[in-house]
Every structure is written in structure tokens, then in C-alpha cells.
Amino acid sequence: MEDRRGYDRDEIFSKKVKAGKRTYFFDIKSTRANDYYLTITESKRKVNGDNFTYEKHKIFLYKEDFFKFVEALNESVDHVKTELMPDFDFEQYENEDSENEYRDELKWE
What we know:
Layout: E1 13-19, E2 22-30, E3 36-48, E4 51-62, H1 66-84, H2 91-108
Antiparallel strand pairs: 1-2, 2-3, 3-4
Pfam families: DUF3276 (PF11680)
Keywords: DNA-binding
InterPro entries: PUR-bd_fam
């Protein structure tokens, strides 16, 4: 939707993250007052016989909560990495994601 100055107010930025059977979407959107907020959507494909649907869960995150949210997320992930699973190699997933992104890029060439 365009505002009176011709700017698209709906979606400003979008990032898609494929994670196994789930896909996460990080979308920045604007309000009518030209303020911004983030929606985080988890989308999971459900197979019903020959058909499929998507189950979606959405979080709305407003600018005043960005810092607290990121801080809590980082603290939670760090706790799993250092306290609960200190010997686990989490870097294997980083490399896996890079390889998948590279393969996806090759498909478009």
C-alpha cells in the first residue's frame, strides 16, 4: 500500500531463512505514522495426502523491544552452547547453511 508520498508502507525489508522443514521470514514493515516494526513468521509445511498446507506462527516485535529481545535471544542461545551442550559442534550448521545457499545460487545460473 502506498502512502500519499508514493512510498510502499507494507514491506520495507524481508529476509528468508530455510531451516529444515521450517522457513522463517523476518519482515520489516511500516506503520501509518512511518514507524517500523519487525514480524518474525515461522512457516511449516504440512502434508495432507496429495495436498499440503502451511502452518504459520507470527511474532510482532516493536522497536522499543528490539534490544531486550535480541539480548534475551543471544543469552538463551549462549546458554545452550556453553552450559547445556559445550562439546557440540554448532559450526557444522553454519557450514551447512553456506553450502545450501551456494547450491541455491548455482540453480539460478
